[in-house]
Structure to design on (628 residues):
């Protein structure tokens, strides 16, 4: 078993990753890659794409926090308050995954656009007499769309870890004098930190690497790094620059995840 | 158990006073309205078969299940509406309910931390309780690295460290194997004696109830059918259910008419009470096989003789077809007993109980 799975791991994950990492130190001359060892790609990334980089990290962080909190609330409700409807609710959550990524983006375009459902409703109700343009083509629309897409992915790991939280432990905590808030903070959350971290990591990395959503609903001022990376590879054939940008956002992203993990560690028992 | 530290039912105010307490789940009455007094120093057993409502009753005392009717008073204070976090009780849960993300020491210290005890006090009290229940060497382990018996001790320590007015234990020994159960039974007695608190525990095991408790409430179908000391319950069961549930008992059917009971087995004696069908209950160790000096008796056929170490068990079939078990500590006598032969059995009238019913 280790042989074949090792081969798959090497071929599909390690090799492309290692190749791109090496390329990020190369140069491009006349659309041809030239082996080298230069840090110029990285310094140019920071100089030319500092803002998209920072903006991407911020918006991805906001999306990941929002998604994880919502996923936790939803999973918590399913685990402790849904009773016999728990499985049905979980099933419905999962089935939205079949909806597809682009379908969800278009759905939100239809809802938030100037001739969209939201504006039609507001016009019909007489609340506004001109369609509002604040709903779409801004970072807020990106946050809404990506959060909606990521939510089912985030619910699963949180629910899995919540399922391991036994009622007897919660009752024991109350018995020892803990009110609802303490039970939640001391017993529930620390036991599902792995699930919370998985949900956050998932949401953060996917949001940070996304370049389709900002293009469709983000508008001109939502400049996310994925969009530029895609351009480096597809339009300018500048693989070294694209690779350097990719590894920069990846490194920065992992640093933020490590920071979040460290911060959540404060909830561990003394 | 003979030492009754604390008041007992004679005059003292009860520590726990239940009045008209009942619980319905939907249409099902888990606990019928009942009154119960538990006194300071009691080691009190709620005994009954599974589904008799004993755990629901315990959970109502602990504040986990709101009662449908009635009140719970602890130490003269009405706590019926208070949650478990506000009651002077602590519970040892059947599944232990240890916090898997905390070490043994953190588990035990959690309640004190909530109560905002100082670090020094927590360390001292946790250390002392770990010594008392003999788990000092497990302090830094996590619950998943504990055996069943160890987890049991940690759960006990975690509740005891809070110095509860009443310690509640839900089937404390049910998950342990026989040997550990005996050991923990000894431990619980030792701990109860050394700290002198009030313990209330739920069990379906009559041996456990007899071995631990100074007072027992026997429950059947949500009702408390008899309450008293182990001796009283064993020797003077009020109903057929109690006599069959506590220890082994021979049951002989009969009828009472005008103060005279006539058994189907052909024995008649005077016994005051209302007319109607009755059951005579007599313990196997009260039956004598020589018949000689016994007050009541009849003959039967000896069907089986089993040597069980401390005593010999005889099975006798009477003319009525009813079977009688007899236990005799005189293990040497069995040599003369031939299976299939007719034997004389008998017992003293003081050793039997006559209860109404069939």
């Amino acid at each position: 078993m280790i042989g074949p799975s090792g081969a798959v791991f090497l071929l599909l994950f390690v090799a492309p990753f290692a190749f791109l990492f090496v390329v990020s130190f190369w140069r491009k001359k006349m659309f041809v890659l030239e082996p080298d060892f230069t840090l110029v790609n990285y310094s140019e990334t920071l100089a030319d794409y500092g803002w998209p980089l920072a903006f991407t990290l911020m918006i991805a962080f906001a999306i990941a926090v929002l998604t994880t909190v919502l996923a936790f609330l939803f999973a918590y409700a399913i685990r402790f308050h849904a009773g016999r409807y728990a499985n049905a609710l979980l099933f419905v959550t999962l089935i939205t995954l079949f909806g597809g990524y682009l379908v969800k983006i278009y759905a939100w375009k239809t809802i938030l656009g100037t001739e969209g459902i939201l504006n039609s409703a507001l016009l019909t109700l007489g609340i506004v007499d001109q369609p509002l343009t604040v709903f779409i083509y801004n970072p807020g629309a990106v946050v809404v769309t990506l959060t909606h897409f990521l939510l089912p992915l985030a619910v699963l790991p949180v629910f899995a870890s919540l399922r391991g939280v036994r009622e007897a432990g919660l009752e024991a905590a109350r018995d020892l004098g803990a009110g609802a808030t303490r039970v939640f903070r001391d017993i529930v959350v620390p036991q599902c930190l792995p699930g919370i971290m998985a949900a956050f990591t998932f949401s953060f990395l996917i949001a940070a690497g996304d370049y389709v959503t900002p293009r469709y609903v983000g508008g001109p001022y939502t400049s996310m790094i994925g969009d530029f990376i895609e351009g480096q590879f597809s339009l300018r054939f500048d693989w070294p620059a694209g690779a350097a940008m990719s590894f920069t956002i990846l490194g920065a992203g992992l640093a933020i995840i490590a920071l979040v993990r460290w911060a959540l560690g404060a909830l561990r028992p003394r | 158990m003979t030492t009754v530290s604390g008041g007992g039912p004679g005059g003292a105010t009860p520590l726990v006073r239940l009045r008209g307490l009942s619980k319905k789940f939907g249409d099902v009455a888990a606990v019928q309205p009942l009154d119960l007094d538990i006194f300071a120093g009691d080691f009190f057993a709620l005994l009954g078969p599974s589904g008799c409502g004993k755990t629901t009753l315990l959970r109502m005392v602990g504040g986990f299940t709101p009662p449908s009717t009635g009140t719970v008073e602890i130490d003269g204070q009405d706590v019926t509406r208070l949650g478990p976090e506000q009651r002077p009780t602590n519970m040892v849960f059947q599944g232990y309910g240890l916090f898997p993300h905390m070490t043994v020491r953190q588990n035990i210290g959690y309640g004190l931390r909530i109560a905002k005890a100082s670090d020094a006090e927590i360390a001292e009290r946790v250390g002392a309780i770990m010594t008392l229940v003999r788990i000092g060497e497990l302090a830094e382990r996590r619950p998943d690295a504990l055996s069943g018996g160890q987890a049991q001790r940690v759960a006990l320590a975690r509740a005891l460290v809070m110095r509860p007015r009443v310690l509640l234990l839900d089937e404390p020994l049910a998950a342990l194997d026989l040997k550990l159960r005996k050991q923990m039974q000894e431990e619980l007695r030792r701990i109860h004696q050394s700290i002198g608190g009030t313990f209330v525990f739920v069990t379906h095991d009559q041996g456990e109830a007899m071995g631990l408790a100074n007072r027992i409430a026997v429950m059947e179908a949500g009702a408390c059918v008899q309450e008293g000391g182990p001796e009283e319950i064993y020797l003077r069961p009020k109903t057929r259910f109690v006599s069959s549930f506590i220890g082994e008992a021979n049951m002989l059917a009969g009828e009472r008419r005008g103060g005279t009971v006539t058994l189907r087995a052909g024995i008649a004696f005077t016994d005051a009470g209302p007319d109607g069908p009755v059951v005579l209950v007599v313990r196997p160790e009260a039956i004598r096989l020589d018949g000689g000096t016994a007050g009541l008796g009849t003959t039967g056929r000896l069907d089986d003789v089993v040597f069980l170490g401390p005593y010999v068990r005889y099975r006798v079939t009477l003319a009525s077809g009813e079977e009688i078990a007899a236990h005799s500590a005189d293990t040497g006598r069995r040599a003369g007993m031939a299976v299939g032969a007719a034997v004389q059995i008998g017992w003293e009238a003081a050793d039997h109980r006559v209860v109404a019913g069939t």
About this structure: The CA atoms of residues 100 and 144 of chain B lie 7 Å apart. Confidence is low (pLDDT under 50) at residues 1-8 of chain B.
